[in-house]
Design goal:
It is built from 3 helices and 9 strands, in the order E-H-E-E-E-E-H-E-H-E-E-E. With 127 residues, it is an alpha+beta fold. The longest helix is centred in the first third of the chain and has 11 residues. The relative contact order is 0.22.
């Protein structure tokens, strides 16, 4: 597993988007898009070669935001998403959502697991 990005829950994605543009003016910002499979508005910000931030607004983060929580998940790239799911489940993780294509990531498969360190997203990439 290789670190990919941090996920931030947003009530109004444009607020966080505008704030991050001010503090990271040289970062690369994707457009804000809606992913019907995730039921969320999404944006990826490449701050530098070692830090990416994904902004997430919509159904997946409503309960977190209602509790005042904005940290959503840590994402890792994996070569084989199904093998990685099985490995994490054997170590005590619980699969939250089955792998499905993610528009923000060029339809690469993503899934979410609940772990002892919080929610982990896996994205299947060629490593």
């Amino acid at each position: 597993m290789v670190f990919h990005h941090l996920g931030v829950a947003c009530k109004e994605i444009s607020v966080q988007y505008d704030f991050l543009k001010k503090i990271f003016p040289d970062a690369k910002f994707s457009e804000i898009i809606y992913d019907p499979l995730q039921e969320a508005d999404l944006c990826l910000i490449n701050v530098n070669e070692s830090l990416n931030i994904e902004l997430v607004s919509g159904k997946p983060v409503k309960s977190l935001l209602s509790k005042g929580i904005s940290y959503y998940h840590t994402c890792f790239s994996v070569k084989d998403i199904n093998k990685s799911i099985n490995d994490l489940k054997e170590k005590g993780s619980i699969l939250i959502s089955n792998p499905k294509p993610a528009i923000l990531f060029e339809n690469k498969l993503v899934c979410f697991l609940f772990t002892p360190i919080g929610i982990i997203e896996l994205i299947e990439n060629d490593l």
